[in-house]
C-alpha cells in the first residue's frame, strides 16, 4: 500500500520531484481545507493508493498532497484554478490533469498512466508516439495517440450541464456551499433563498472547473452565482433582487413556507 505524503513547502516539492525515477508516475492532489469535496477526494485517493505497492524499484507510482493556497507558486505553475485538482506527472512533465471530484475520472486517469512503462514514457516524451512491434520484434508502425474530438467533448459537457440545471426545480450554481459560501454574492443569494423558504438544489462550481467554465458558455452568462428555475436561467444576485422588488410572490411556487393567505 502506498502512502500519500503531504508536501508543505516549495523546497519539499522540488526535492520530491528530483527524487523520482523517470518512469514513476507522480500523483499530485491539490486541495484546500475549506472545500468539502477535497475531503471526499482524499478518501478516494487513499483507496486508490492502497492498490499500488511502493516496493518495486523504481516504484510505479508516488502520491503527494498539496495545499493549493499555501503553495500558491506551485498551484500557479500547474494552473490550479479550482480544488480538488489532480496533476499526473512523469519525468517532470504533466501527462494529464483532472479538475473536480469525479472519482471515476480520477481512477481512469491514474490507471491509464500507471500502466505506461518507462520506455513508453520516454518514447512519448521524445515524439509523442508509440512503436508497435511484431512477433520477431521488428517495428510495424508508429501509433499516435488519438486526439480528443473537441466537438464531441463540448456536446457531452452541454448534455451534462443540461441535466444539472434541471436537477431540482430551483438550482443555485454558487462558489462554495450554502453552509460555507466562498464569495459575498453567493452568501447573499443563499440568505435570500432562506428568507423566502425556497427549497433548492445547489452545485459548488469551485469543485468542478469543467462545469465552472462550461456553464458560462452554456448559459451565456459570465458570472456566478447563477440561479436556475425549471431549467431556465433567471440570473445572478442583482436580477433576483429586481425580480423580488417587482413581484413579492416571485418565489411563492417554490417556497416551503405557508402563504399568508393560507395562514
TrEMBL record:
Pfam families: Glutaredoxin (PF00462), Thioredoxin (PF00085). Residues 1-115 form the Thioredoxin domain. Keywords: Iron, Iron-sulfur, Metal-binding. InterPro entries: Glutaredoxin (IPR002109), GRX_PICOT-like (IPR033658), Monothiol_GRX-rel (IPR004480), Thioredoxin-like_sf (IPR036249), Thioredoxin_domain (IPR013766). PANTHER family: GLUTAREDOXIN FAMILY MEMBER, GLUTAREDOXIN-3. This is Glutaredoxin. It comes from Sporothrix curviconia.
Amino acid at each position: 500500500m502506498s502512502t500519500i505524503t503531504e508536501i508543505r513547502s516549495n523546497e519539499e516539492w522540488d526535492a520530491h520531484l528530483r527524487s523520482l525515477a523517470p518512469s514513476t508516475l507522480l500523483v499530485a492532489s491539490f486541495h484546500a481545507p475549506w472545500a468539502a469535496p477535497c475531503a471526499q477526494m482524499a478518501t478516494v485517493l487513499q483507496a486508490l493508493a492502497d492498490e499500488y505497492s511502493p516496493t518495486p524499484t523504481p516504484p510505479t507510482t508516488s502520491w503527494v498532497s498539496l495545499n493549493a493556497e499555501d503553495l500558491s507558486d506551485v498551484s500557479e505553475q500547474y494552473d490550479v484554478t479550482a480544488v480538488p485538482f489532480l496533476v499526473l506527472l512523469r519525468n517532470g512533465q504533466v501527462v494529464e490533469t483532472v479538475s473536480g471530484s469525479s472519482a471515476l475520472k480520477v481512477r481512469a486517469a491514474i490507471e491509464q498512466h500507471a500502466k505506461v512503462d518507462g520506455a513508453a514514457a520516454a518514447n512519448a516524451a521524445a515524439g509523442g508516439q508509440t512503436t508497435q512491434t511484431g512477433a520477431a520484434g521488428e517495428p510495424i508502425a508508429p501509433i499516435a495517440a488519438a486526439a480528443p474530438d473537441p466537438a464531441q467533448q463540448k456536446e457531452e459537457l452541454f448534455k451534462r450541464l443540461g441535466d444539472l440545471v434541471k436537477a431540482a426545480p430551483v438550482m443555485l450554481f454558487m462558489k462554495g456551499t450554502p453552509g460555507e459560501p466562498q464569495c459575498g454574492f453567493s452568501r447573499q443569494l443563499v440568505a435570500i433563498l432562506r428568507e423566502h423558504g425556497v427549497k433548492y438544489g445547489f452545485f459548488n462550481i469551485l469543485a468542478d472547473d469543467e462545469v465552472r467554465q462550461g456553464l458560462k458558455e452554456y448559459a451565456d452568462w459570465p458570472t456566478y452565482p447563477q440561479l436556475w428555475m425549471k431549467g431556465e436561467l433567471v440570473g445572478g444576485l442583482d436580477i433576483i433582487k429586481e425580480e423580488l422588488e417587482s413581484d413579492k410572490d416571485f418565489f411563492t411556487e417554490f417556497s416551503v413556507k405557508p402563504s399568508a393567505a393560507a395562514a
